[in-house]
Amino acid sequence: MDKTVAIIGAGPVGLAAAAHMLERGMSPVVLEAGPEAGHAVRQWQHVQLFSPWEYNIDKAAARLLAPTGWNSPDPSSYPTGGELIDRYLAPLATRTPLRETIRTSSRVTAISRAGFDKAKTKGRDQAPFEIRYRNGKGDEVMRADAVIDVSGTWFSPNPAGSNGLPAFGERECAGRIAYGMPAVRGTARSRYAGKTVAVLGAGHSALGTLIDLAQLAEEAPGTRPVWLLRGDDPAKAFGGGRNDKLAARGELGSAFAALVTAGEIAVETGFGVTHISELEGRLRISAGARSVVADELVVSTGFRPDLSFLSELRLRLDPAIEAPLALAPLIDPNEHRCGTVRPHGARELAHDEPGFYLAGMKSYGRAPTFLMMTGYEQVRSIVADIAGDQEAAARVELVLPETGVCTRGGVESTGAAGCCGGPPKAEPSACCAADESAKKAGGVGCGCS
After folding, report:
1. CA dist., res. 151 & res. 143, Å (int)
2. What pLDDT sits at residue 341?
3. Between 145 and 51, residue with greater pLDDT
4. What span, in angstroms and rounded, lies between the C-alpha atoms of 432 and 403?
5. Is 186 exposed, middle or buried (0-12, 13-18, 19+ CB in 10 A)?
């Protein structure tokens, strides 16, 4: 098993991949663009995760930490991003053999096959990968037998424009625009306190930011949160409530719904941003003929993968979702929104470039439903595949919690109504794999209700 594997990204899933590699006697090299492991997590360390510790620690990583005297956190408690770093990622990266595998401040700029451009086929699968990266010394090159790209999507957020492009004026107004989930009650408090703050988006980042702004309004009079929603139905963002098996995720939607109902958050529905301009030191945010004036804008419209350094590799990506072709139908937000995406691994994540895999958040392309535990299962399977252990690669070792809300074909349902009905299918669907498995075993559809 003397294989060298390049792992791009030293986040939770990248470090988990490296831990599995060490267990199988392979040589991982982790290339991290930031100055420390978990660099992307450090950007949202103020955020509390809606999954408890039991879902945020990889098993191979825990086995690697055990001899160091590491104390596993209470599995039922909910960490913040900062706690995830301090109590798990930092010890994993600095107190275990992984510390010898991580190269920080090493940004990957290109990957190819040694001696082969994208068009050349004969003998291609026998050639090692050539990975170019840039660090403080300049440009470096390494070769590897396989590559796992878990570089994530945090640093490539979607723009404000509803057509997938930046809104007109978005770049010019960048000084008053933040992306993702800024620490509005923490390090960025002075920027938002006492201001009118518009938040664009309908996912968990948008909801969490609006809740924080509503709490900030209690502390700092004059703070006014405004929710800009592209769709017409605010209720779709409220989630599954008590039906959500991740209680904190359900509570987030319920708390947000209560604030909207109470009028503590102003709502502008059907608001597809087209233009952003300055107006006497403020922002005019326009959606056609309509406009909202605010002091600051937070764009929480999701993320997209950076594929620019993979242009010489033969990738099989869905043209819409930009996820691996076999995975895309399971996570396509046009068809469904579920936390119960069927567990998947090397088979769904492979490409026409043998030995190359996308994993972690990046594997989901533009889909928003990724869970950290999904990434751990992905890399467990991928590492087994690289090691030639096909049985372990195909095995499913993960049961995902239900969201309580499942949308398929544009129809939203909860419990047994909708995705839990009908006969079992030949292949489990993304939404109700557990339900269909129960039916095949003679059950009556209790898997997802």
Report:
1. 18
2. 65
3. 145
4. 11
5. exposed
